[in-house]
Amino acid sequence: MKFFNIAIAAALAGGLATSASPEVLRFSSFEPPVAHITKNILTVWAEDVTAASEGELDVQMFPGGTLGRNPAQQLKLVEDGVADIAWVIPGYTPGRFNEGTVAELPFLVENSTVGSNAMWALFESGLLKGDYENFKLIGVMASPPNGLASAVEMRAPRDLQGQNIRAPGPTMLSAIKSLDAVPVGGITGPTLAESLSRGLISGTFTQWGALETFSAGGVIDHFLELPLGATPMLIVMNKTKYESLSDMAKTAIDEHSGAAFSDRFGRSFDEYLIEAKDRILAENEIAIIEPDEALTSQWQEAMSVAADDWITQTENGQVLYDTFKAELEKAAASN
């Protein structure tokens, strides 16, 4: 009888062990669920990690601001434990990730693949400190370079004088100020179309993906094709949550994070950008301005002060700038 009871207890214990529920990780995105990054990059990552964890994890997406609608609040959601993982635009929380704003400098990042590879390499070099050290970093990326989308024609730097121009990050806003324009911050992607249609801004530093995601293609008339600075992006995880996970769960996350994730993100974003541009131009009359060499030189000269100011005003700025530029060149050569 004693042996029978022990056997029953062992069987029950085994059954309970095998039926244990996976650890749920909540992944927040402020984008709509059908938007490219959320649907084709973040959701796929969540599925890959869930599968790789062999039952240890269930990474669930909460898109469309389900856990918090404001893009500027995504970081706080992770800090407060409302979300375990989130897609964060550092420019919406100025002062938190200063070193990474080097990617916002004009005429550096040529595409998201190269920019994202260089950003992760910069992180791995140990030069991104402060708030970068307070989270588990899933990815450190850069968007494709932002051009100038506007409701009025702005062809040369002088055309921006006195115009209200928006940008998604503090360094790009400083570059706008150097053009004698009025820099406008605080306008996130979801309010971009309304801000343009109401005349609160005349133009914005942005890229075609954002114009499509936030339905702003119908409220612009011109787009200046120049690499006027990329938008730094992060996928952050609550560090305490990560450290509480099993070794199997941590391994599943690590295998799909870091350099691999940043590269996947960049390549997918670049492919999507071409498609988004084609769709927007098919539905709207937008004049594309492609500056020749002489006009490009005007822009480079007019905006050169932005890099000088950034280097001067950023701790270890010259080393960060030089290292990032070298990593961009290395990534470009391998792609």
TrEMBL record:
It holds the Pfam family DctP. GO terms for biological process: transmembrane transport. Keywords: Periplasm, Signal. The keyword Signal applies. One of its GO terms (cellular component) is periplasmic space. It is found in: Periplasm. This is TRAP transporter substrate-binding protein.
